[in-house]
Amino acid sequence: MSVHQERSRSADRRVRVQGSPVDSCPAPPPEAERGSVRRITVVGEEVLSRPCREVTEFGTSELSALIDDMFLTMHVADGAGLAANQVGVDLRLFVYDCPDEEGIRHVGHLINPVLELPDPGSRRLVDDVEGCLSVPGATMAVPRTDRAVVRGFDKDGRPLVIEGWGYFARCLQHETDHLIGHTYLDRLSKRDRKDALRQMEDRREDVFARRATKAAGLGR
Q1: Full residue range of the structural domain in which residue 13 is found
Q2: DSSP 127-145
């Protein structure tokens, strides 16, 4: 998921890492400092359109390295969230570094997530602009619930429950969608989907150039 300019991050925000409050967290977070930049897949590639596999082995160096790489790749692309299939790996895993409506910055990763939404009678749908790192340059209004809970595990197999409100709830829903083979384009009308794809064709090269420049500036 991409970050919009009006939601810029601030160093003095309250922070939650893996759902727990902490005094501070650097930007980019420590995982990104250890990672390598990977290519981000683009809508139309097969890995984005099929359900991802469950993670069955926890605590491995390969899993840790993947998470580190995803954090750095997300940072270079100015993202708020990134799913594993967006770097070509079909595993049920996503990372996030995302603000919510109260100015709290949420940072972490979630493995084998299960999304829980409020009951239909109590949920509130909000239309807000949404972007995706795999649909470079395009943004469209997408209806999402304003609250979401996701249950899953960390990289060592410890259970996690992450709750989000507002923009962070949108991020959790967006990334969980990726892992079942959906992008936000699948939630649009045919007309809006065509509009988003036209935006992508017009802007993708500029987006790729910005990412390359940022990666080069970091020496990656």
Answers
A1: 5-209
A2: EEEEE-TTSTT-EEEEEEE
pTM of the model: 0.93
Number of structural domains found in the chain? 1
Whether residue 87 is contained in a domain is answered as: yes
Q: Which residues, 6+ apart, have CB-to-CB distance to 220 below 8 Å? A: 36, 37, 72, 76
Of 40, 109, 106, residue with least CA distance to 73: 40
Query: Is 75 part of any domain?
Result: yes
Q: One digit per residue, pLDDT tens: the chain, 220 residues? A: 987 534 444 444 599 999 999 999 999 999 999 999 999 999 999 999 999 999 999 999 999 999 999 999 999 999 999 999 999 999 999 999 999 988 999 999 999 999 998 777 667 889 999 999 999 999 999 999 999 999 999 999 999 999 999 999 999 999 999 999 999 999 999 999 999 999 999 999 999 999 999 999 998 8
Is 218 domain-assigned? no
CB atoms within 10 A of CB 182: 15
Q: Is residue 217 situated within a structural domain?
A: no
CATH for 53: 3.90.45.10
Residue tagged active-site, from 130, 175, 201, 205: 175
175 catalytic residue (yes or no) = yes
What does the block give as tokens for 36? Answer: 């390598």
